[in-house]
Design goal:
heterodimer, A: 294 residues, nine-stranded mixed beta sheet, three-stranded antiparallel beta sheet, globular, B: 526 residues, alpha/beta, four-stranded mixed beta sheet, 20 helices, 19 strands, elongated
Chain lengths: 294, 526
């Protein structure tokens, strides 16, 4: 769907929906424009993932790794919709069935590049938002990028910088985050890599700490669990799923037997079993369901 | 003197008009000839007609040369149905009767001049209506059949003497206005329904098997196909038969198609009983290609056509001949079969819901907890190969059936899909309502249910929201599903949404549709 076909909405500074964390920064945007379905829960646990536009394959993989793990905890991933680390982060989030916010360095209705049209759509379709400080079709300019970076920093409690060469814009985002009192996490890279030089500066000046999934999760005050495969943390697994898993851990059962032992409604059970199968928590064989051994 | 009487002929599903030309002349040797590719049964008519006319008290012009031409002369004609029109022609040409013009005739004559039940009156009446004739004349016992075509004057005669009353201006004999069959959208009320279901096998007779019941409900609602896999004795055949109690009422247009088909077939089923419900055919697995797809000398329709707009149940699917299984592809994909013989080709419709039952392995006990499977791996692979393939690809839903252990099953009312009559009626109403939604949605494309949608039409009506699309895309790579599976899943999801009364497809619909994917007799990796 064309960018212009999505309707954009505006939120003023005094709107109750205006994200609180962003409101607290000095000189916040007076008006925020967005496209997508607004949901205030999106802003509760935001982590920014930014980095160089000229990524290495390591950087891309690292960004994916962090994003995939963060998504399991229902964390919203925020980034700048640029090619490179930003795109990798947005995509990894969508593929992990998480939600992401893309902060644009141009007007809300400005047409994004052709190669990004798919990503644009997917971000909105997966429950995320496209956000901009600028109205209508205003084009990108030298000053719009740092302005946008402050928004990324302002929305998040933590910022992950994946790769940054010496003059990288993501370093500006990191500075903002530091200034706003948010925690910056720098992803370690090869000492030989150019893309690590920028981050080195942050680490040496103690403006950032070394990034790890565990460290991030615990910083956010969430209970960290070591998870395998596609597992969800226990706190996020719906109780109905637990009932089914419990029933199956007692013994492998057929659909009818699970119905009996859990007392769940049969349509709900169908959808739960399907989801559990997708997540590889259970498998079915010849009509019986079994808990996966991992 | 030349008289022309009109009737109909059959060529596959086509019903061309046939003109019986009766020429009685005093020139030439006396004789009685019938020409026009008349088959043997028609040649035999001569004796019936002669005797019938004389025994009724009419005069037979045995001193004249009588030539009957059944036009068009290159259309093969069969059967005894032309007895009556030929008789009328002869009687009219000899001035013994003077019927109103513009009538069509059909009927078999007995030696005493009475008329006996002859198939084809329904089609005759339809044709009359289509071409604007004023009415049809058929044997008295054919009245019920002919009246299934609405808005046609039907005269049912007991014997040919009654032809005298058909003259222009006289009071009409046994005139009947057509009485229409079940009209689309007619949902039976609870009270009516309770009386109706006594005597049929329904879900109420089956313990447990909630997944299978749900699959059958969805199949009934959207015309989808289902394969039930399970060991012998688990209840697959019983489940399939219970489907008849769940099928939605047949719409007027669909019924016309079905009646046309049954009018061609030489069976004991009267058209009026066909008109009550959708067809349910369950041919035995020893069936030949001809029995199942049609053909033979008369190029008659086969089981797949007799199941048109209804259900084709193939029990012991693996036991069917391989050429039968492969030939199922055409009707399942296209909705019709082409039968070719001696250079002639006829197309019969065959849009049915295929319900199949099969064992998971040759002995059937592969997943049994109590009985040991006697099959070797080699046998199992070979077995899978027989069933695997393009046919499975075209089946929409797969369900595992396990024998229900009465002792470990507690009867908790809120789980059961059908625990009492009212619950069952709810299930059936869900089916009926879903059909109504589909008919209004799809009528502009001349199809009746979701399973008939092609990929183009599905795109229009099966839009997914973001969440559903994500789940489906993820599942496709997770389970290695093909694009064909994708299409099947969204169509099934559409039906699930229709049963629920939801205009849009959401993630729970997709998840449920996914739960019926083929995981047992797979071609794709799991």
């Amino acid at each position: 769907m064309l960018a212009s076909l999505y309707m954009s909405e505006a939120i003023l500074l005094n709107d109750p929906r205006y994200p609180k964390l962003l409101k607290d920064v000095p000189n916040p945007p007076q008006e925020l424009f967005f496209k997508g379905r607004f949901d205030s829960s999106l802003f509760e646990n935001c982590v920014g993932v930014v980095g160089s536009r000229r990524t290495t394959s390591y950087g891309k993989k690292a960004a994916e790794y962090f994003v995939e793990n963060l998504c399991r905890y229902e964390i919203t991933i925020v980034s700048g919709f640029m090619y490179g680390i930003d795109s990798a982060a947005h995509e990894a989030c969508i593929n992990s069935r998480g939600r992401t916010l893309a902060i644009l360095p141009y007007g809300i209705d400005y047409s994004c590049p052709q190669y990004q049209k798919n990503l644009y759509e997917q971000i909105v379709d997966s429950g995320g938002l496209i956000i901009s400080e600028y109205a209508g079709n205003s084009p990108p300019a030298k000053w719009t990028f740092p302005k946008r970076n402050r928004i990324i920093a302002g929305l998040c409690r933590a910022l992950v910088v994946v790769e940054a060469g010496k003059g990288s814009g993501s370093l500006i985002t990191a500075e903002f985050a530091y200034k706003y009192g948010r925690q910056v996490f720098a992803v370690p890279g090869s000492v030989f890599s150019e893309n690590f030089e920028g981050l080195l500066g942050l680490l040496e000046s103690s403006k950032a700490r070394v990034a790890s999934v565990k460290g991030l999760i615990e910083f956010l005050g969430i209970n960290y669990e070591h998870l395998d495969g596609n597992e969800l943390p226990k706190s996020l697994v719906p109780s109905s799923w637990m009932r089914v898993l419990q029933s199956l851990s007692e013994q492998s059962r057929s659909f009818d037997e699970i119905l009996s032992s859990t007392g769940l409604n049969s349509r709900l059970l169908s959808t739960i079993l399907m989801q559990l199968e997708i997540e590889r928590r259970i498998f079915s064989e010849g009509g019986k369901y079994h808990v996966s051994k991992n | 003197m030349l008289v022309k009487i009109k009737s109909i002929g059959f060529f596959g599903m086509e019903v061309p008009e046939v003109v019986i030309e009766v020429n009685i002349s005093s020139r030439g040797f006396p004789g009685f000839e019938i020409v026009g590719l008349a088959g043997r049964s028609i040649k035999e008519s001569k004796e019936r007609i002669k005797a019938g006319i004389v025994n009724s008290g009419f005069k037979f012009p045995s001193d004249k040369k009588i030539v009957i031409n059944l036009a068009p002369a290159d259309l093969p004609k069969e059967g005894s149905m032309y007895d009556l029109p030929i008789t009328v022609g002869i009687l009219q040409a000899t001035g013994q009767v003077n019927p109103s013009p513009d009538l069509l005739y059909l009927g078999e004559l007995s030696l005493d001049g009475s008329l006996s039940y002859t198939k084809g009156s329904f089609l005759l009446a339809l044709h009359a209506k289509k071409r604007g004739y004023s009415g049809v004349v058929v044997p008295f016992d054919d009245l019920a059949d002919a009246c299934l075509a609405e808005d046609t004057e039907v005269y049912g005669l007991k014997n040919i003497l009654e032809l005298r009353s058909l003259r222009a201006g006289s009071t009409l004999l046994q005139a009947n206005r057509g009485v229409g069959p079940a009209v689309q959208g007619n949902v039976p009320t609870l009270k009516e329904s309770k009386n109706q279901i006594i005597g049929e096998i329904t879900f109420l007779d089956i313990l447990g098997q909630e997944q299978a019941k749900r699959a059958l409900q969805i199949a009934a609602a959207g015309g989808h196909s289902v394969l039930m896999v399970g060991p012998p004795g688990a209840g697959k055949s019983l489940l399939a038969r219970s489907l008849t109690s769940l099928l939605p009422p047949i719409s007027r247009e669909e019924l016309l198609e079905v009646l046309k088909i049954y009018s061609l077939v030489d069976s004991q089923i009267s058209l009026s009983s066909v008109a009550q419900t959708r067809p349910f055919r369950s041919p035995h697995h020893t069936g030949t290609l001809t029995e199942i797809f049609g053909g033979g000398a008369k190029l008659l329709p086969g089981e797949v056509t007799l199941a048109h707009r209804g259900v084709l149940f193939l029990d012991e699917l693996s036991e069917f001949k391989e050429n039968v299984l492969t030939s199922l592809l055409q009707p399942m994909e296209q909705g019709y079969v082409d039968i070719l013989k001696n250079g002639r080709s006829i197309r019969y419709p065959s849009r049915f819901s295929l319900i199949g039952a099969a064992n998971p392995c040759p002995c059937g006990f592969r997943y049994s907890e109590t009985t040991r499977c006697k099959c070797t791996e080699f046998m199992i692979q070979k077995y899978k190969k027989r069933l695997s393939g393009p046919l499975l690809d075209r089946i929409d839903m797969f369900v595992n059936i396990l024998p229900v252990g009465v002792d470990n099953l507690e009867q908790r009312p809120q789980n059961k899909l059908t625990v009492n009559v009212d619950k069952f009626l709810q299930v059936r109403n869900g089916v009926t309502q879903a059909r109504i939604v589909q008919e209004s949605r799809l009528s502009k494309y001349s199809i009746y249910c979701n399973s008939e949608m092609d990929s183009h039409i599905s795109k229009e009506f099966c839009r997914l929201d973001g969440e559903s699309r994500r789940i489906l895309n993820f599942a496709m790579s997770r389970f290695g599903l093909s694009m064909r599976s994708y299409l099947k899943i969204i169509k099934v999801a559409r039906t699930i949404a229709d049963i629920e009364g939801s205009s849009s497809i959401v993630s729970s619909h997709i998840l449920e549709a996914l739960s019926f994917r083929n995981s047992l007799l797979m071609r794709e990796k799991s």
